[in-house]
Amino acid sequence: MSFKDDVxxxxxxxxxxxxxxxxxxxxxxxxxxIIKNSLASANDDEIGALAYSQELTVHxxxxxxxxxxxxxxxxxxxxxxYKVIDVPEAGGMLAIRLDxxxxxxxD
Length: 107
What we know:
Blueprint: H1 3-14, E1 22-26, E2 29-44, E3 49-61, E4 74-77, E5 80-86, E6 89-90, E7 93-99
């Protein structure tokens, strides 16, 4: 078994619905993925206050998507549009970061 085969087998375990994976709809296509909701904070230097930002990170196999998401464009997750922040990829797995603050009111 090659390293590539080992990584693919690991993804199967990671995304198994009996383990961590859940069924969701991305851009109209049902896929198994893992969604992480996070809250980040940053200092606002002008007024000295903290600003909070909510993001979703969707872990999904690239081959399972109908199209590759692009930063700055929309992605519809379970019927709600979100703005894609970035889409890092490693070993065939995407970690799609979505702006969860204002799903339909973008800059």
